Automatic annotation (TrEMBL):
Catalyzes the synthesis of GMP from XMP. Pathway: Purine metabolism; GMP biosynthesis; GMP from XMP (L-Gln route): step 1/1. The gene is guaA. SUPFAM superfamilies: Adenine nucleotide alpha hydrolases-like, Class I glutamine amidotransferase-like, GMP synthetase C-terminal dimerisation domain. This is GMP synthase (glutamine-hydrolyzing).
Length: 430
């Protein structure tokens, strides 16, 4: 990393990402690290210019206030504290500084340069990828989503035909999604693409598995197994490309942070992984991933495609996955996307999808009592996926969506609209 860096040490704040993003918006790179980072770990980071001790409501653990290692004060880095009683810091704030105070700290006290931008980031990553990979090949899971598409573009720029893309249909894709991925990447972009239909394999592994963390780990682990099998058919595959982004790492927890949920590409990888990972986006927030994609020359429609979790519909078919609920989920989601596009909401709403819980509710069909599934609609707006607000959908649009779902998906008896922001909810249900 050639860019200057401000390090944020987490001492119990719930707003670490807010601080990190504000610094990045000033054109200076920032990273969040645990409060007990060692001198050696800190000095191993590139171009650190200053440190922010970011305290908050969670700085007391088991009745004891967490503290940084005292020797960090002796390293000579400019240092400020926020809601943390650090007498050795020159400046202390009870709450986050406003923009001018933050600019003064970053540029005047830390002497950092505003050299954080996508052009420089891409140049850095291309150099690092070439150094890491050498003349070997990289295997990449290409779902067709934003993250994997941007990773593919980055790897193609760095190593060209040394990249082998694999699209795995795990049976948990949205309607017609696998067909679309093959058409775009193999037929139109002429990528070196291998298509694997592993539907029965994944659904068999997930049978009777209700715990969401276990589902994520099974899906992540099985993905690796599929890649290992494909790699054995090829020569020189030593690396696995991944679309891990910064919120994945933050939400999956560090050695001091609580885990919100394990992401399949962070917490769900098997210990006996046979590949070395290549993760060129792991320092980026979601909006930065999109900016990176644009800088790499990807089409706007691809870069701003509807987000989709790595485990796919597996974490939207709540509880133990059944084929009938999975089909109801896939069809209702397709209807929702069609109606949002018709209403122009696809360009306004960041993420929208349906969820089918693991229970039935009474309804009426053909003048008789019937039991059917409930479809829950969720539509949220966000910048970086760390917080999210609810989109206020016109009732007439919701009514039309409800009418279509209940008419076209016979196993559904009810349609609901979910209105909980993040926090306290997460964007996904599992």
């Amino acid at each position: 990393m050639k860019q200057d860096m401000i390090v944020i040490l987490d001492l119990g704040s719930t707003e670490n990402t807010v601080v990190a993003r504000e610094i990045r918006e000033l054109g200076v790179y920032s990273e969040i690290h645990p409060h007990d980072i060692t001198v050696e770990e800190l000095q191993a980071l590139d171009n650190v210019k200053g440190i922010i001790l970011n305290g908050g409501e969670n700085r007391v653990v088991d009745g004891k206030e967490v503290e940084i290692r005292p020797e960090l004060y002796t390293l000579g880095y400019p240092m400020i504290s926020v809601d943390y009683p650090a007498s050795k810091c020159e400046k202390q704030f009870k709450e986050l500084p406003n923009q001018e105070e933050l600019k003064q700290f970053v540029f005047e006290e830390c002497k950092a340069e505003a050299n954080w931008n996508m052009k420089n980031f891409i140049e850095d990553q291309v150099e690092l990828i070439r150094k890491q990979v050498g003349d070997k090949k990289v295997l990449l899971a290409l779902s067709g989503g934003v993250d994997s598409s941007v990773v593919a573009a980055m790897l193609i720029k760095a190593i060209g035909q040394q990249l082998v893309c694999v699209h795995v249909n795990h049976g948990l894709m949205r309607k017609n999604e696998s067909e679309s991925v093959v058409k775009i990447f193999r037929d139109e972009l002429h990528a070196n693409l291998i298509y694997v239909d592993a539907t029965e394999r994944f659904l068999g592994k997930l049978e009777n598995v209700a715990d969401p963390e276990e589902k994520r780990k099974i899906i992540g682990g099985e993905f690796i197994r599929v890649f290992e099998e494909e790699a054995r058919k090829l020569e020189g595959i030593d690396f696995l490309g991944q679309g891990t982004i910064y919120p994945d790492i933050i939400e999956s927890g560090t050695k001091t942070a609580k885990c919100v949920k394990s992401h399949h590409n962070v917490g769900g990888l098997p210990e006996d992984l046979q590949f070395e990972l290549v993760e060129p986006l792991k320092q980026l927030f979601k909006d930065e991933v999109r900016a990176c994609g644009i800088e790499l020359g990807l089409p706007h429609d691809m870069v701003y495609r509807q987000p989709f979790p790595g485990p796919g519909l597996g974490v939207r078919c709540l509880g133990a996955i059944t084929r009938d609920r999975l089909e109801a989920l896939r069809e209702s989601d397709a209807i929702l996307r069609e109606e949002f596009a018709e209403a122009g909401l696809d360009k306004k709403v960041w993420q929208y999808f349906t969820v089918v819980p693991d229970f039935k509710a009474v309804g009426v069909r053909d003048n008789a009592r019937s039991m059917g599934y409930m479809v829950v609609i969720r539509a949220v707006n966000t910048i970086d996926a760390m917080t999210a607000s609810i989109e206020r959908i016109d009732y007439d649009i919701l009514e039309k969506i409800c009418a279509r779902i209940t008419a076209e998906v016979p196993s559904v008896s009810r349609v609901c609209y979910e209105i909980t922001p993040k926090p306290v909810a997460t964007i996904e249900f599992e």
